Each structure stands twice: as C-alpha cells, then as structure tokens.
Amino acid sequence: MSLILHGYWRSGTSYRTRIALNLKGLAYEQRPVDLRAGAQGSEAFRALNPQGLVPALEADGVVLTQSPAILEWLEERYPDPPLLPHDPDERAIVRAMAALIGCDVHPLNNLRVLNELRSGFGADGEAVKRWAARWIGDGFAALETMIARHGSGFAFGDTPTLVECYLVPQVYSAERFSVDLSPYPRVVAAASAAQALAPVAAAHPDRQPDADPR
C-alpha cells in the first residue's frame, strides 16, 4: 500500500502520526504543508482535507484525516507490532491516556488557538506561554498519576503504545513553551524511554525534510 503523509514538521498531530507510522515500520512519502505560509488554506489542500488541518494521510486513493482516526486505522490495518494491548480493559486505559493529551491538552495549545490568543485577545508572548503551561500542567499532573498506576518503563506497561505517540510530541511542545517539567518525573521518563527508540527518534521535528535549518 502506498502511503503519503501531508503534514508539518512541528505540528504535534503530524509528529504523533509519524511516530505511529515509524513504530509500525511503514514506509511513507512526506509532502510538507507549510502552516506558517498558510498552505493549509490553499485550494489544493482544502480539496484533500476540507477542514484545512494537518495531518492528512493518503492510502491508495483514500484520504484519512484527524490523527486519532489515522492512528486507530493504522492499528487496525497493520496490527503488528501492536500499539494497543490485547485486553479490552487495558485498551480502554491506553485510549484514555492518549485522549487526555489529544482531547484535553493539545487542542488548547495548537497553532490556530495560539494565533487567535495573539490576534484576537492581544496576548503577548509571556501570556501565551502561561496559557500553554496552564493546560499542559493540568494534563501532565493527571498523566503522572496514571503512569504511576500502569507504567513499567513506558507510559503503559513495558512497550510503547498509542500513549507514546501522543506523549512525546506534547513533551516537545512543553519544552518549547518553557514549561517546568520537574513535577512530572514519570511523564519525562516515559517520553525519554520512547525517544531512545530509533523509530521515535526518526520522527522528531528537527529530522523532517521541511524543518527549519539549524
């Protein structure tokens, strides 16, 4: 199957999709969408994804959008290696941990929300950082407890799951916003364990073809 990922190097949702693709060992072509230049609003991209958001994944003519749906599709289409446990109760816990980030943290500090804070509400750089830290802190505090209950080297159990796909990009975002991560040692340890894996390291924003020169 031919896979084409339309994304942006620093987008958290694109990052989590790259992690999942890499952990599954799948080959894919990347077609960058420059969010800062407004490419997501172009007629060509809107024809692909009417919502004008990244990522979008083309799979033999089928266009998949919304990263949670893409990750679930990858798990169903390519079940080995699994990113969800076999046990239904454990699967629900992993999904809840992932949704904690994907639903309650990330959307509040993505680019379009932060741009609206700046342009629509007059927030300066420090106010934007405080906003991001507020919601990241709430989410990471809850996740810290969940990792203490369910983690064993990784956020859940002793192998990477969907949680890592969400967690690693959110830690990257937290570091960009200078969030103090010292209250969340288990969160940091789980993210570090994942980042030590070659497939996860290869998904890092700085290693993407459209990344800013360093």
Notes on the structure:
With 214 residues, the protein is an alpha+beta fold. The protein folds into 2 domains: 3-81, Glutaredoxin (3-Layer(aba) Sandwich); 88-199, Up-down Bundle (Glutathione S-transferase Yfyf (Class Pi), Chain A, domain 2). It has helices spanning 12-23, 43-48, 67-77, 88-104, 111-121, 125-150, 162-176, 185-195, 198-201; strands at residues 3-7, 29-32, 56-59, 62-65. Strands 2-1-3-4 form a 4-stranded mixed sheet, covered by helices on one side. The longest helix has 26 residues, at 125-150. The radius of gyration is 17 Å and the shape is globular.
Question: What is the structure about, briefly put?
Answer:
The chain is of the alpha+beta class. The chain is 53% helix and 8% strand.
How is the secondary structure organized here?
Blueprint: E1 3-7, H1 12-23, E2 29-32, H2 43-48, E3 56-59, E4 62-65, H3 67-77, H4 88-104, H5 111-121, H6 125-150, H7 162-176, H8 185-195, H9 198-201
Parallel strand pairs: 1-2
Antiparallel strand pairs: 1-3, 3-4
